[in-house]
Specification:
Shape: elongated
CATH superfamily of the largest domain: 2-enoyl-CoA Hydratase, Chain A, domain 1
Oligomer: single chain
Structural class: alpha/beta
Order of helices and strands: HHHHEEHEEEHEHEEEHEEEEEHH
Number of domains: 2
Strand order of the largest sheet: 3-4-5-6-9-10-14
Distance between the termini: 99 Å
Helix content: 25-40%
CATH topology of the largest domain: 2-enoyl-CoA Hydratase, Chain A, domain 1
GO molecular function, one term: serine-type peptidase activity
Strand content: 15-25%
Protein name: Tail specific protease domain-containing protein
CATH architecture of the largest domain: Alpha-Beta Complex
Number of strands: 14
Organism: Larkinella punicea
Pfam families: Peptidase_S41, Tricorn_C1
CATH class of the largest domain: Alpha Beta
Largest sheet: 7 strands, mixed
Length: about 350
């Protein structure tokens, strides 16, 4: 036998065995799927990623101290769910959720003390069937039309479309409504999406460049570890802008990118916000899975208005307050929209 080959083979086997041994040592041991470990994992994900501890003056260590014994004492998933829900209720954040795999336990939302309530003060169906004289649906989430020969209307239910599609839709809407004396822009059922779309659409109503928001995201283990502040400006966008009066309709269900859009639109001098105060949940979220398969969503950012203030948990108050009643909406009457048409 060739001695050199024998030595080379021996060295190769030694390397393979060494690598295999190291690999075994580096394999992470998955924590036991106990109720205590599920609580600790949830607490750790918020501790390392949540962006609003300082804004809302939350003592997260105190939450750990008070709830760990409860998690240890839990006897079933129902009791674990109660412990996790109690811990997250401290945050009062509509972007914070527990999504379970149990149809009985369902889900939990921190900002609403349990479940997000169904919207009762707005139905687009009421607007379309009883007020619009014409309407063009451009995407699943965007459409425009007329409430009268002189009043235009744009409805947006989210900013989850592609920006390229929104640019085309806005071109059509601005062209079709250019002769109107005002536009009612309806985001009363807006459930979020892209802040870049918020910026672009608001720019189609802008006369000048103005700061409308700042944002920063957690990027480290300490509660004050953040990326650099990002400044957001609204400025004229597209080939043309609509600079005549615009009434922006909001409700307490207008959330996330609907609220960053509200920030941007309010910086335009031709825009008045009417309706209800928005939800007060601006931050982006990141999902994490617990050991038992449940998902949690964690707010990772600190978003502020152009005045430097945080409106998390507060929302953006309208210039003119108006709230519909469910009975009216179901009967085909939208009093807030009627007020906007008269204003």
């Amino acid at each position: 036998m060739n001695i050199k080959k024998t030595i080379s083979f021996g060295i190769l086997m030694l390397v393979v065995l060494s690598f295999t041994s190291c690999e075994k040592m580096l394999v992470e041991v998955k924590p036991d799927n106990s109720y205590e470990n599920n609580f600790q994992l949830m607490w750790e994900k918020f501790d390392s990623h949540y962006g609003l501890f300082l804004v809302n003056k939350i003592d997260w260590d105190a939450v750990y101290t008070s709830h760990l014994p409860l998690a240890r004492a839990a006897k079933n998933e129902k009791e674990l769910f109660a412990v996790l829900s109690s811990a997250l209720s401290i945050l009062k954040d509509q972007h914070v959720n527990i999504i379970t795999t149990d149809p009985i336990l369902t889900d939990y939302n921190s900002g609403h003390n349990g479940h997000i309530p169904a919207q009762q003060d707005f139905l687009f169906k009421t607007v379309r069937n009883h007020y619009l004289i014409e309407y063009q649906e451009c995407t699943e989430n965007f459409g425009y039309g007329k409430l009268s020969d002189e009043i235009g209307y744009i409805h947006v239910s989210s900013h989850m479309d592609n920006l390229s599609d929104i640019k085309k839709a806005m071109d059509k809407a601005i062209k079709a409504l250019a002769s109107s004396r005002k536009i009612v822009f309806d985001i009363r059922g807006h459930h979020g999406g892209s802040d870049n779309i918020s910026k672009y659409i608001a720019g189609r109503f802008a006369k000048s460049k103005r700061l409308f928001m700042t944002s920063q995201k957690r990027n480290g283990p300490a509660h004050d570890d953040f990326e650099s502040v990002l400044e957001w400006y609204v400025e004229p966008e597209g080939g043309s802008q609509y600079t005549k009066p615009v009434i922006l309709l909001t409700t307490s269900h207008t959330i996330s990118a609907g609220e960053t859009f509200t920030f941007a639109m309010r910086e335009n001098v031709n825009v008045i916000q009417m309706g209800e105060t928005t939800a007060g949940a601006f931050s982006d979220t990141v999902p994490f899975q617990l050991l038992n398969g449940w998902l949690i969503t964690v707010s990772v950012g600190d978003y502020r208005g152009s005045d430097g203030k945080s409106y998390e948990g507060i929302g953006i108050s309208p210039h003119i307050y108006s709230k519909n009643q469910q009975a009216d909406v179901l009967a085909g009457v939208d009093k807030t929209l009627e007020l906007a048409m008269r204003y």
